[in-house]
Amino acid sequence: MNNYLNGFQLFLENLDSYRDKFLFLFIKPYWPGKITPNHVTWIRVFIGIFLFILLFWFGIENKFLVIVLFSVGVLTDLIDGPVARGTNRVTEFGAMLDSTADRIIILPIAVYSLFTHHKWLLLALLLVEILNAIASLFYRSKEIYIESNIFGKTKMVLLSVVFVVILIVWPNPPPVFFIYTLWFSLVFSFLSVFAKILELNNKGHIKNKIITKQLNKY
Q1: Where are the transmembrane segments (predicted)?
Q2: Alpha carbons 196 and 207: distance in angstroms, whole number
């Protein structure tokens, strides 16, 4: 199974590398040095918080404004990683901030668009993100650095595209295909967690012999 997982992971990473190659054409020669990758990521954090306040505190449901803000947030997710790699500014804090920003930008839109008609889907998405957040905090408490993997990135791409579409058709119900796509994104969430567990095992951080023995089978 590990061979299949590694093969699939390599396939997705190769696809993602084309994004880097394209953006590097602009980032390496033209990106302003004073703007760090974390600056870009912080924009996503602030947009997510602002969306939460806008939708749930003030109850402002300006469709155009919400779509624009969310799209800008998604755009920052598209470029902050390549900026970090293209300018040699990859840091552990930046990776942690990136995954946190992803959750912050997705959360208000997920609740806003799914709560009425798709509560179970919303609950599943939230539980997975909560588990991922708890795991990340645990890794950090043990001073274990686990880099974000391509499965988590793929999940974020799926969520971003689907929620943009849902916002465009809102308040009409989204096409069933996109709801199924959100359910399917959970597969990548679990693959991401499983890949991290395998990485922990390979690095010797999992001490339980029974668990280690089972993981080694993969």
Answers
A1: 41-58, 64-83, 151-171, 177-198
A2: 15
Q: What is the CATH number of the domain that holds 177?
A: 1.20.120
Could you give the C-alpha distances from 53 to 47, 118, 129, in angstroms and in order? Answer: 10, 22, 20
**Of 163, 146, 154, which Cα lies nearest the Cα of 197?**
146
Distance of alpha carbon 129 from alpha carbon 67, whole angstroms: 22
Per-residue pLDDT of 34-93, as tens digits, reads 899 999 999 999 999 999 999 988 887 788 999 999 999 999 999 998 999 999 998 888
At 164-200, the pLDDT tens digits run 999 998 888 888 999 999 999 999 988 887 777 776 6
Question: How many structural domains does the chain have?
Answer: 1
Tell me how many degrees the CA angle 68-109-106 measures, rounded to the nearest 5. Answer: 95
| CB-based burial label for 130 (10 Å; 0-12, 13-18, 19+) | exposed
- Per DSSP, the chain holds a count of helices (H) and strands (E) of 8, 0
Crossing angle of the two packed helices 92-114 and 63-86, in degrees rounded to 10? 160
User: Which run of H or of E encompasses 198?
Assistant: helix 176-202
Query: What span, in angstroms and rounded, lies between the C-alpha atoms of 201 and 197?
Result: 6
Q: Dig out the tokens for 130 from the structure.
A: 């909560």
Type of residue numbered 16? D
Residue 18 structural domain: 2-216
Could you tell me which of 90, 106, 105 has the C-alpha nearest to residue 37?
90
Q: Burial of 170 by CB count in 10 Å (0-12 exposed, 13-18 middle, 19+ buried)?
A: middle
